[in-house]
Predict the 3D structure of the following.
Amino acid sequence: MILVTGGAGFIGANFVLDWLTQSDEAIVNLDALTYAGNLQNLASLTADPRHIFVHGDIADSTLVAGLLAQHQPRALINFAAESHVDRSIHGPEDFIQTNIVGTFRLLETVRAYWNGLNDETKQSFRFLHVSTDEVYGSLAKDEPAFSETRRYEPNSPYSASKAASDHLVRAYHHTYSLPVLTTNCSNNYGPYHFPEKLIPLMIVNALAGKSLPVYGDGQQIRDWLYVKDHCSAIRRVLAAGRVGEVYNIGGCNEKPNIEIVHTVCALLDELRPLPTSHLPLTIPHLPLTTPHSPLPTYRSLITYVTDRPGHDRRYAIDASKIEHELGWKPAETFATGIRKTVQWYLDNQSWVSNVQSGAYRTWVEKNYQERG
Ligand code: NAD
Ligand code: DAU
């Protein structure tokens, strides 16, 4: 079996669900269930004996050592992290605790377990660390995409904490020979994405008739990858990645934020058109038409707000290493992936209302009120 951490969050839950459709190998899923962890993401596995959920912290060495001893996993995939840049700007402490201290404790505990394995299982064991393209910093307009040898230049408390965790993982390989793999991926989107992040926030706000807050000039560029393609890349790296190597993962889908928001609006205009005869009272912006559209459109809800401090201008991933070495390619284009995503949110509105708890509302007020 394998041990996954953070498997109740966005990417981790997609990974667990995907894994169990492809394989009968069981998963132990260790997750602290922070605001971002949600067992509803895994509701379809409630009666599935191949999924063993454990509520706990990656920094709890006693708990993790017990799980390793009991289940003897052949691999560990570390998704657990604090993941939202804006939250890291408001309060970096949790990021330092989980992303740096937590990863360190996990490495120490896994190292002790791994040292006790026999030669054969020791050789085949893998510690796969899931990281981000943000560790490389920000690209100028014409710079080439991030390759694995790009220097680290993290700019936010979030990316700095992930960079530190990557360095620890690297050091445990070089110093102790722990068989590690690291993946650095671009922006994911898809089902179960927590609506604090750009794409799901735009979808849920639009459907609620709320404004669509675009930071700064909206021209920042991200490289978008459908989450299931990230999951398939991780499976591939786990199966065939070379120990100690880093693999960049991306969808070759560079887009400015404003284009993403326009695309979401256009899909909603098509799939859930605004009524022409009467206007929902919740929508504060009138008229609902724009110079581009004689019909009511969600685009009219777009509002430019104060930028994120230290906002990285552009990310782009050069995924040629994983493509050439491991034969991985994304299955979705942005057009197919974003349509599936918008449709998923339309079909799963009870999931959305369940995650919009009091704590979620407090965060939204805190983050957006001060942006004016
Ligand atoms: P997420 O915030 O949706 O989920 C994180 C999960 O980790 C949650 O279930 C949370 O409860 C759990 N967790 C947090 N602290 C923990 C702790 N101390 N112990 C155990 N569990 C803990 O994040 P995500 O978007 O699913 O990202 C998963 C991983 O992928 C992160 O490491 C992130 O840095 C990385 N990543 C994310 C993206 C993206 O676009 N979302 C892109 C590249 C890399
Ligand atoms: O690049 C990978 C990273 O992508 C991951 O490591 C992070 O965990 C993940 O959260 C994501 O980080 P970003 O900061 O790029 O994602 P976010 O969805 O927060 O923002 C995407 C872009 O949209 C960014 O340029 C900021 C902008 N934005 C975001 C929000 C929430 C807005 O314009 N308005 C918003 O309300």
Notes: Residues 2-189+226-252+311-331 form a domain with the Rossmann fold fold (CATH 3.40.50.720).
